[in-house]
Write a structure and sequence with these properties.
This protein is an alpha/beta fold. The chain has two domains: 139 residues, Nucleotidyltransferase, domain 5, CATH 3.30.420; 172 residues, ATPase, nucleotide binding domain (Nucleotidyltransferase, domain 5, 2-Layer Sandwich), CATH 3.30.420.40. The chain is built from ten helices and ten strands. It has a five-stranded mixed beta sheet, sandwiched between helices. Strands 8-7-6-9-10 form a five-stranded mixed beta sheet, with helices on both faces. Helix 5 runs parallel beside helix 7, helix 6 packs across helix 8 and helix 8 runs parallel beside helix 9.
């Protein structure tokens, strides 16, 4: 079966053609196209929703035909159409949803709405069948969630950030230090050069027995640290700040995931999202899972950020469970906690 999948929840327009036989866990990526908007938003230090929506409109049609051409197929060859419907920037989502519905309707194909967070988790499905139940950790610029999954389609959110997402915190802290947008990659590089114990940072995991996170306190702490040094005319080693911030985030993530795996007696962990491109977080999770005998799955770097392949992978299992959408499909800025199917 051939899936044409669209992702436009934030600042990247992505289209992919993926082949996967029904009832199989095998995937063949025939094409994966991504139009990034990083250069467009860099001057603003973050994503501007209206500009993002317009950029999606400009890119999505040509990108779709390029994905089809690179895959060596035509619109008639596509069996199913998948698209991200939530959560994300509503204007950006609507571009993808409406284009996908139009493509599906004009070509007589079924359309499937996919939750963006489910999509990130599904990037791990391309490595073969994963034992369920599992715990999934998703971290990106807009999302930080811990999920208990009883199957590839049955998800329950058991932990989340109460304010800033991990990637958002990296960007805001990095911007205050004068790093170029997006700041995550630069902070990762500088953290390798700094001392992770140079500054005492507040943990970002909640201490109330939940699996939640709060990163606004860390962000405020670092900004105050930098402001105080500036007022005193003192210099601050930026690499040390990056290393200290990265270390406390990694420690808190590992702690919460360890507690979660223990409570639910699960020994399989999936990690996904753009922040999983961070080398220190990948290393921390790998070290923890090796020590605890946990089966860890992290996508390759090419599938950590937003992409159409992950949406196709999630859609496959939604379809096989009978979760097909119709032309009333719409975009939603927030994800429903009950993971209601479409």
């Amino acid at each position: 079966m051939l899936y044409l999948a669209f992702e436009s929840s934030c600042d990247e327009t992505a289209v992919a053609v993926v082949s996967s036989p029904d009832g199989s866990d095998e995937f063949t990526v025939l094409s994966s196209e991504i139009a990034s908007q990083i250069d467009v938003h860099a001057k603003f230090g973050g994503v501007v929703p209206e500009i993002a929506s317009r950029a999606h409109i400009e890119a999505i049609s040509a990108l779709t035909y390029k994905a089809l051409a690179d895959a060596g197929v035509t619109a008639a060859d596509i069996d199913r159409v998948a698209v991200t419907t939530e959560p994300g920037l509503i204007g950006a989502l609507l571009v993808g949803v409406n284009f996908a519905k139009s493509f599906a309707y004009s070509n007589g194909k079924p359309v499937l709405g996919v939750n963006h967070i489910k999509g990130h988790v599904a990037a791990n499905y391309l490595n073969g069948r994963i034992k369920t139940p599992f715990i999934a950790f998703v971290a990106s610029g807009g999302h930080t969630s811990i999920i208990k999954a009883d199957s590839y389609t049955d998800f329950e959110t058991v932990g989340r950030t109460l304010d800033d997402a991990v990637g958002e915190a990296f960007d805001k802290i990095g911007r205050r230090m004068g790093l170029s947008y997006p700041c995550g990659a630069e902070m990762d590089r500088l953290a390798a050069q700094g001392d992770p114990k140079a500054f005492k940072m507040p943990p970002v995991h909640m201490k109330d027995g939940s699996f939640n996170f709060s990163l606004s306190g860390l962000k405020t702490h670092v900004i105050n640290l930098l402001n105080t040094a500036e007022m005193r005319g003192e210099s601050v080693n930026i690499a040390d700040v990056c290393a200290s911030v990265t270390a406390v985030i990694c420690d808190s993530v590992v702690y919460q995931l360890g507690q979660c795996l223990k409570r639910y007696r699960v020994d399989t962990l999936l990690a996904a999202g753009g922040v999983l491109a961070n080398s220190h977080l990948r290393a921390a999770l790998t070290s923890f899972c090796n020590k605890k005998g946990v089966d860890l799955h992290i996508p390759p770097l090419s599938l950590c950020g937003d992409n159409g392949v992950m949406i196709a992978a999630a859609a496959k299992y939604e379809y096989e469970k009978g979760l097909v959408s119709d032309m009333s499909l719409d975009g939603r800025p927030s994800s429903k906690d009950d993971w209601k199917s479409y």
